[in-house]
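Before any further analysis, we paired sequence with structure tokens, yielding the entry below:
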Amino acid sequence: MTDLASALAALRAAANPQKAAEMAAYHKVDRSYLGLPVPQIEEHTDAWRAQIGMLARIDLAAGLWDSNIHEARVAACKLLTQARMNEGDAPAFALICTWAPQFDAWALADHACVALQKRLVADPQRLDVIEDWTSSPLMWMRRATLVATLPWAKINHPKAEDSAIRERILGWAALYVPDRDWFMQKVVAWWLRDLSKHDAARTAQFLAEHGPYMKSFARKEAAQYLPDHLRAGLPL
């Protein structure tokens, strides 16, 4: 049976001190690093999934996150990244929401947001909770509102309710345009770039309205995949 102690021991046993030092220098966040690549972490989480039930998995994820070890936090996110969680759906969403105020770097925030994407798609009414993050004083929480909602940028033929959600999220993106923080400009561009592959006209419309107020790199990234006829006349 996998418990927190054995899970942490397994991760530590695979530690690579040289890579750990490199990761600490790269991420620039004061926490413990073991030097494990994500595929190696996933080997562990795949094994743990097979050994324990859903609610025990959520408890394990909570303990791994609280360890404040980078790789353990990645593992916590991976344990909660799946489309269907049945009885674990609500507690998994609640747990990820407790992590959000602790986001302090893009890597862990993004892993957590991928898990959050699954919970939002499972119940879009949870977007009401996420919308509150748009006014958070913590940049990483504001940024998470767009990373966690990327599935709605990627729908080729959205239903009416999906189109309404897409417009809601684009409203959040518009709120962020005046924010000069690089990460906020980057995430707006990311959302628009993904949208452009599925609704180029709506992306061009957003850029025509808000592009003049975005940073140059963000405008260019957002328009990267737009066809020439839609790029013409945009403030790029």
